[in-house]
Amino acid sequence: MNSLTDLEILDLIANPLTKEKGFRLLIETYQRKVYGVVRKMVIIHEDADDITQNTFIKACNNILKFQGNSSLFTWLYRIATNESLNFLEKKKKRYFFPVEDHQEVMANYIDTSPDISGTEIERKLHKAILRLPEKQRLVFNLKYFEDLSYEEMSAITETSIGALKASYHHAVKKLEIELTAE
Which residues form the RNA polymerase sigma factor 70 region 4 type domain (predicted)? Predict the structure, then answer.
């Protein structure tokens, strides 16, 4: 089956007779990418699954508000990143976690989870990324792992390109220092 364009998916969703099929195609088209971004932010599979599901629920409930100023991909990533950041913030507040404790929980998950594979170097990188401030971690993940342009990242995060470049630069420098110190 050929993949449909955003416009074709939106047309299916707009038609009451094909609305369900349109939503199914939206999810099939973008679920893996959305999950990937979320997973890099929250690390734990079950949390990433829940946030991904919430992202698509929110998208489905608000699809009529989508104005087409960006691609569906960008719009979904914006929802997913906001959901991820909100989740992390709520988790810290709910459990009165200092940031370091929550990072330790996620770092332990990297070491012990059968869901996460990779070499020791990859695990060290993922743990170092966890220690970045959330905004820098998000920017680093979008640029390094997702290979997004600063323009796409700006649309997703609603942050200026200059601020994104600065965040990425600071993240890379912190990671270099941390990874070469060991």
Answer: 123-175
